[in-house]
Amino acid sequence: MNAALISRVFLGLVVGVMGAPASRAETDTQQVYQTHCASCHGVDRLGGAGPALLPGNLERLRRPDALKTIAQGRQATQMPAFGALLSSQEISALAEMIYTPLAKTPTWGMDEIRASRIEHVKAASLPNKPVFKADLLNLFVVVEIGDHHATILDGDKFEAIARFPTRYALHGGPKFSPDGRYVYFASRDGWIAKYDIWNLTLVAEIRAGINARNLAVSSDGRFAMVANNFPHTLVALDTRDLSPIRVIDVKDDSGKSSRVSAVYDAGPRKSFVAALKDIPEVWELSYAEISPQGSEFAAPRRIKLDDYLDDFFFDPSYEHVFGSSRGGQGRVVNLNSGVKVAAVDLPGLPHLGSGITWNYQGMPVMATPNLKDGVVSVIDMGSWKIIKQVPTLGPGFFMRSHENTPYAWVDVFNGQKNRDVIQILDKKTLEIVKELKPVPGKVAAHTEFTRDGKYALVSVWENDGELVVYNASTLEVVKRIKMNKPSGKYNVFNKITRSEGTSH
Ligand code: DHE
After folding, report:
1. How far apart are CA 296 and CA 298, in angstroms?
2. How many whole angstroms from 214 Cα to the centroid of ligand 1?
3. Residue whose CA is closest, atom 47 of ligand 1?
């Protein structure tokens, strides 16, 4: 953050605190914060080298864990232990403070976004030849959320080519440029990074929001679009150097603003499609034309709906979006006409974003795991009728398959029991045919296939975790690679070709 911005935000903080007279204890806690925390987390708690310490950004950190982190630090990060420096009362007061909203709502518009950009190296100055030997289309990017790193993995040898630090708490799938050379990451704190895989080099970073959901990269590779929870904006970036192009306020006709649940690239339509949490609309932002006036994304197309849709699945042509309202009925909307064409009653909380497709008895079907119920729903994409509810051992997050494999792999780690199991669904019979336990007693999650579909990689989602490589036909383990809470893994070929078995 630049000096002017720091002093402006600090002034805002002081005024905010003065606006509502602070108690002695609050003032003391502010002082403790400024002395020990501000240099990394920002004087304003908006983040810096360390993550933002705001209630919205900390939703996923339980308070007891926050106390523990302050007292004991975080292994393999720059977060030191304060247990010897601060009393337990001071630590509790700090924890209380970081879960309290700021007195003044912070601003994060074009000026702040532009000022945050760091160009580590000019992308064009880097050689157009990889600095290592491997099948460039069979690489994996593996996100390790235990210590906030990413690994570039050779998908033939299953060996790490590089491992590098990322921003705190990446979320959503990293996105690739169409040739697979660059990968773009988004962190929950709104940091977007561009990494050159061929040169194993971080190119640029920019903070597009204070609390982001995900990013999408256009199928022509020119633009990135960032979905923000806070502020209520979509932010368009130029992928060459991540410079910001436009900040789009997300509002309905009455001026009510909305969090953006996620944004997706609808490649065949040459547009981005955004899911909105608080207004019943779907937004489409076209990148079909290069505008000489630079007016890209100035006028999103707004499709008005009769309900909120915030989790999306697209059919392969991107003509239809199947959305769920997280608890309500699923709806299929034709993106050309903007008209709802079907309603689908799914139990629990379907995780449509993890849906996959295949051909079942001559018809294209999609299948989705369920965050709340132990079920995988298989749906005919012609009639949008449910073909089968396949019971699983518990609620799951992700499912994956590949054109060259007869099975879909389903995790079930979102419940209390059986979190160490991966279930294997036969795509022909729609029956579960096998259960795998990569490491008994340890959480198993998120599968991804090699480019040829011959091997499946599963995460053991623990700090002393591993990536377990299975032969996708025999279901035997062929290799185990130690990793620090590996979460998603992304195969370059499967992603850039939009394989039917992987999320997009
Ligand atoms: Fe995710 C993708 C939403 C919690 C790990 N998650 C996505 C996407 C959405 C989404 C909309 C698709 C965007 C994309 O890939 O570009 N996730 C949500 C939620 O609403 C939810 C339930 C609550 C929240 O706090 O945001 C949620 N997600 C989680 C987790 O708790 C997970 C398991 C751990 C974490 O890191 O936060 C998690 N989400 C992931 C991963 C992907 C993802 C690994 C990418 C999956 C992929 O294979 O493409």
Report:
1. 6
2. 9
3. 173
Closest CA to 225 of 179, 269, 285, 170: 285
| Amino acid (one-letter) located at 236 | A
Ligand 1 pocket, Cβ-based, cut-off 6 angstroms: 60, 145, 171-173, 214, 261-262, 311, 353, 397-398, 446, 487-488, 503
State in Å: Cα 399 to ligand 1 middle.
Answer: 13
Q: Helix 63-72 vs helix 88-98: angle between axes, to the nearest 10 degrees?
A: 130
- List, as one string, the DSSP characters of 39-95: HHH-TTSS-SSSPP-STTTTTTS-HHHHHHHHHH--TTSS----TTTS-HHHHHHHH
What's the pLDDT tens digit per position in 207-217?
999 999 999 99
Residue from 409, 373, 425 nearest 394 by CA:
373
Mention every residue, 6+ apart, whose C-beta is less than 8 A from residue 240: 123, 124
Say which DSSP state 125 is in: G
Measured by CA distance, the residue closest to atom 8 of ligand 1 is 172
How far does the centroid of ligand 1 lie from the alpha carbon of residue 97, in Å? 27
User: Which alpha helices (DSSP H) does 275-425 contain, by range?
Assistant: none
pLDDT of residue 20: 53
Four-point Cα dihedral 206, 3, 99, 80, nearest 10: 90
Nearest residue to 189 via CA among 6, 65, 57, 56: 57
What dihedral do alpha carbons 114, 115, 117, 120 form, nearest 10°?
A: 140
Q: Can you tell me which atom of ligand 1 is nearest the CA of 275?
A: 11
Q: Which two tokens stand for residue 208?
A: 């597009």
Q: Report the distance separating Cα 73 and Cα 255, nearest Å.
A: 43
Ligand 1 mutation target, pool 59, 171, 467, most atoms within 8 A of CB: 171
pLDDT (tens digit, 9 = 90+) per residue, 17-52? 334 556 777 788 999 999 999 988 888 898 877 788
Q: What share of the chain is helix, strand, coil (3-state, %, to 5)?
A: 15, 40, 45
Q: How far is CA 368 from the centre of its chain?
A: 18
d(CA 391, CA 502): 21
Mean pLDDT of 338-348: 91
> What six digits make up the tokens of 421?
């199991």
Q: The sheet that has 260-266: what strands, in order across it?
A: 260-266, 271-276, 281-286, 301-304
